[in-house]
């Protein structure tokens, strides 16, 4: 079985940041870059964490069920039934991600935290 990132070992998320800047809405666990950005239902949709002490297979089952629930009960209905509200989420993601996750901020924080 291949290993892939699991909470709390998610990658930094630069692809997710780029996606948000390009009008993609994140549906994710609050890990990696997401906790700095996420406003559930406002600029993304969050999936609840599972108990980290559970076996990986059990966590996968729970997270899959939670993902389907969020998609079926929140994301898809908003997309089809409330397209203006869904567009607000898209635009909020684009607006919120850029000032927080641009390279000038990254370079400044590296300098301040590592070299001062």
What characteristics describe this protein?
mainly alpha, 5 helices, 59% helix
Terminus-to-terminus distance:
43 Å
Helix proportion of residues, in percent? 55-70%
What letter string, H or E per element, gives the SSE order? HEHEHHH
Strand order of the largest sheet: 1-2
In terms of DSSP E residues, the strand content is 5-15%
Structural class: mainly alpha
Main beta sheet: 2 strands, parallel
Shape: flat
Number of domains: 1
Total number of strands: 2
Rg computed from alpha carbons, rounded to a whole number of angstroms: 16 Å
Tally of individual helices: 5
The overall average pLDDT, rounded, is: 86
Subunit organisation of the chains = single chain
Residue windows where pLDDT falls under 50 for at least 5 positions? none
Describe it:
With 116 residues, this protein is mainly alpha-helical. The chain has one domain. The protein contains five helices and two strands; from the N terminus they run αβαβααα. Strands 1-2 form a two-stranded parallel sheet. Helix 3 crosses helix 4. The mean pLDDT is 86.
List the helices and strands and how they pair.
Layout: H1 14-21, E1 27-29, H2 34-37, E2 45-47, H3 56-81, H4 83-100, H5 103-115
Parallel strand pairs: 1-2
Describe the structure concisely:
The protein is built from five helices and two strands; from the N terminus they run αβαβααα.
């Amino acid at each position: 079985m291949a290993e892939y990132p699991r909470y709390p070992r998610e990658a930094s998320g630069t692809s997710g940041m780029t996606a948000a800047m390009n009008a993609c809405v994140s549906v994710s666990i609050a890990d990696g870059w997401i906790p700095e950005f996420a406003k559930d239902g406002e600029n993304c949709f969050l999936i609840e964490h599972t108990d980290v002490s559970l076996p990986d297979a059990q966590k996968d089952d729970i997270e899959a069920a939670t993902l389907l629930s969020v998609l079926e009960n929140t994301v898809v209905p908003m997309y089809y039934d409330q397209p203006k509200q869904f567009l607000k989420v898209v635009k909020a993601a684009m607006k919120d991600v850029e000032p927080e996750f641009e390279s000038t901020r990254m370079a400044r924080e590296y300098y301040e935290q590592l070299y001062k």
